[in-house]
Amino acid sequence: MRNSLFKIGVLALALLLPAASRAEASTGAAPDAARQAVLVNMVREDCGSCHGLTLKGGLGPALLPDALKGKDAASLQLTILYGRAGTPMPPWNRFLSDTEASWIVEKLLQGFPDAH
Fold it and tell me: Is the pTM of this model over 0.70?
């Protein structure tokens, strides 16, 4: 029930976002190669500080494809952007666009690339 309430709250918050932010998410354009490299490093270092540097889990849960199997991609994107109330998961929407969060989710579901 608590998880359902969280999803409802996050989805309601998403509806309050400026139309420009929502429009960006619908473009589907992947970040350019330079930004992708920055995002890979950010996930490995910043997210890895809680989820483990190999994303196998730590303070936060594992972010490997098997652990995320069956999870809704849109919910994962919203979790990245807006965090999880009552947990150490912070919102990253000040640092990431909708498109970038979507790209991260896509890569996490496939198996996140190594930093180069």
Answer: yes
